[in-house]
User: Which sequence fits this backbone?
């Protein structure tokens, strides 16, 4: 375990060697494990039995123009809870947030995955320029671009009857929105669907999370019966 996890177990959870915990590493499912050793900044676990098999995360990628630190932390944590399978900062013309702290982003994803009992971490991509992302786009993945103004079809209606498409991604813009030339570039791309999230202008983080919810309801694991879950 990491030094942070050892600190958390020891000082926040007040756990001691011999105590049982649930553990996952993103590859081998979930295990009931026992704390073997735990001291300042170091700890080891010994796995007893598997409690859940590894599952993949079928949710969409979330691409987002970076925003300020507080809302970004919030957005990343909630996007993990809502099942985003990748997180990818995209630098747009009007992006005014500074450098993205990828270590902080990674720490947020781990904490959120632990908290929501998800067995995989989203794939973290290094920040990339808008045009580079679009130029190198995997053509078999449909990209839903959230656009707040103009004659854009509602996301809910775009996602109806789309069960045939397996791979999806969502892109949201910065506080200032996409520039006219960025929006113009989209219209020529066959893998892009511009979508609206209703008549209200949402904060960037609200838009990203609302879009994930809408996708989960229409095509994701909020739209099918869940396997029984043990306590
Ligand atoms: N300053 C801009 C708003 C940007 S909102 C303006 O006044 O027009 C930030 C981002 O959230 C947008 O780029 C878009 O991706 C998303 N967004 C906000 N509200 C939305 C809506 N109603 N529908 C679709 N996307 C929305």
Assistant:
């Amino acid at each position: 375990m990491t030094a942070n996890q050892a600190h958390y177990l020891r000082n926040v959870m007040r756990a001691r060697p011999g105590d049982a915990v649930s553990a996952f590493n993103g590859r081998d499912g979930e295990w009931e494990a026992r704390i073997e050793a735990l001291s300042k900044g170091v700890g080891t676990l010994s796995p007893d039995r598997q409690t859940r098999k590894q599952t993949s995360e079928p949710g969409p990628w979330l691409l987002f123009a970076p925003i300020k630190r507080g809302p970004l932390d919030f957005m990343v944590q909630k996007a993990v809870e809502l099942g985003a399978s990748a997180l990818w900062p995209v630098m747009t013309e009007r992006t005014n947030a500074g450098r993205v702290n990828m270590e902080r982003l990674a720490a947020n994803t781990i904490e959120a995955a632990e908290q929501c009992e998800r067995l995989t971490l989203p794939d973290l991509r290094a920040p990339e320029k808008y045009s580079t992302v679009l130029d190198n786009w995997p053509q078999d993945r449909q990209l839903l671009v959230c656009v707040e103004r103009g004659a854009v079809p509602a996301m809910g209606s775009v996602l109806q009857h789309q069960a045939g498409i397996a791979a999806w991604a969502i892109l949201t813009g910065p506080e200032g929105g996409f520039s006219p030339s960025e929006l113009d570039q989209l219209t020529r791309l066959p893998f892009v669907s511009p979508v609206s999230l209703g008549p209200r202008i949402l904060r960037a983080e609200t838009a990203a999370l609302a879009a994930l919810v809408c996708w989960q309801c229409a095509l994701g694991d909020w739209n099918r019966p869940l396997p029984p879950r043990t306590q």
